[in-house]
Structure formats: structure tokens, C-alpha cells
Design goal:
Layout (H helix, E strand, L loop, with lengths): L2 E4 L5 H16 L5 H12 L1 H9 L4 E6 L4 E8 L7 E9 L8 H15 L4 E7 L4 H7 L3 E11 L2 E11 L1
Parallel strand pairs: 4-5
Antiparallel strand pairs: 1-2, 2-3, 3-4, 5-7, 6-7
Helix pairs in contact: 1-2
Keywords: Ribonucleoprotein, Ribosomal protein
GO molecular function: acyltransferase activity, transferring groups other than amino-acyl groups
GO cellular component, one term: ribosome
Length: about 160
């Protein structure tokens, strides 16, 4: 059984810990170690997470099993003032994968989205990320291919994927 609870500024260290465990595994064969470090610092620094949480740019939630915190999500309802919930971040510890937790988390995000009048879920995924197939199994479809400049000469080479609710 998993539980999803809202995360606050006090939870930043736990979010950072999970990001630093999951990112090298998720992106280690896709990104250079320099880009990985740059992006972790850009997205998961104390300042960036504090701003996102305090300004409600994203709603952060911790994912727990019966024993410990096993992941986190960052979502935004009413994305671009449309009936869309954007999933900005979803990371589960590697040892939890394959246990059905990801599917449960997506179901819960769908419920939260519907409660906030969303008609669609949206996410970006690196074009070379193996999670792409998982998202397709959940009913997400590629709607767009994007290259997003993030500074330092780096690009995020993503697919935008959507799923109607």
C-alpha cells in the first residue's frame, strides 16, 4: 500500500536525496555526467525547490510505502490556464520499480487532476528514456517533439505526451 502526502519546504532534503539516487540511474546512459550535475543543480537546488514550493509553481507530494519515503511527484494543475494537469516530476526509487507503484501513482495523479477540473494529463519525457514504453502502456500518446534549451549549451530532447481523462 502506498500513501501520497503533500510535501513542504521541510521536505526538500528528502526530495533532493531521491533525485540524486534516481537521476544517475534514469539518465546516466543518456546525459553526460556534466549535464546531469548541471540539471540536478538547476532543478533541485535548495533555492529552486523552495521557490517552486512556496510560490505553488508546482505541488510536490511524497510517495511512501509502509516503511519509508520511496519517491516524489511535482504537478501543476491548470497548466497554461487550460484544463490540463502537467506532471513535471515523477521519480520512484529504483528498488520499487516493477511493483505496480508507478501505475498506482498515475491513478492518484489522475484523481487529483479530475478534482481540479483537468481533462488531460501532460508530461515531458526524454526521447531516449526507457520510461517512454511505460507511459505508452498507461495510455499516454506522443503529441509533440521538443528541444528545450536549459543553459550551458544543454538541451532537453523530449517528447510531450498527453492522456485524456
Amino acid at each position: 500500500m502506498i500513501k501520497i502526502t503533500e510535501a513542504f519546504v521541510e521536505d526538500i532534503a528528502k526530495i533532493q536525496e531521491i533525485a540524486h539516487i534516481t537521476w544517475p540511474i534514469t539518465y546516466g546512459e543518456i546525459l553526460t555526467s556534466e549535464q546531469l550535475d548541471y540539471m540536478l543543480d538547476l532543478i533541485y537546488s535548495d533555492e529552486a525547490l523552495t521557490r517552486q514550493i512556496q510560490n505553488k509553481e508546482q505541488l510536490f507530494y511524497l510517495i511512501s510505502d509502509s516503511e519509508s519515503i520511496i519517491g516524489f511527484i511535482g504537478i501543476e494543475h491548470n497548466y497554461k490556464n487550460e484544463a490540463i494537469t502537467k506532471i513535471h516530476k515523477i521519480y520512484l526509487l529504483p528498488e520499487t520499480q516493477g511493483k505496480g507503484y508507478g501505475k498506482i501513482v498515475f491513478e492518484e495523479i489522475g484523481k487529483m487532476a479530475l478534482e481540479n477540473n483537468s481533462k488531460e494529463l501532460l508530461l515531458n519525457v526524454n526521447r531516449f528514456n526507457t520510461a517512454l514504453n511505460f507511459y505508452k502502456k498507461l495510455g499516454f500518446e506522443i503529441t509533440e517533439t521538443v528541444d528545450i534549451e536549459i543553459g550551458n549549451g544543454y538541451l532537453m530532447e523530449d517528447y510531450v505526451m498527453g492522456k485524456k481523462l
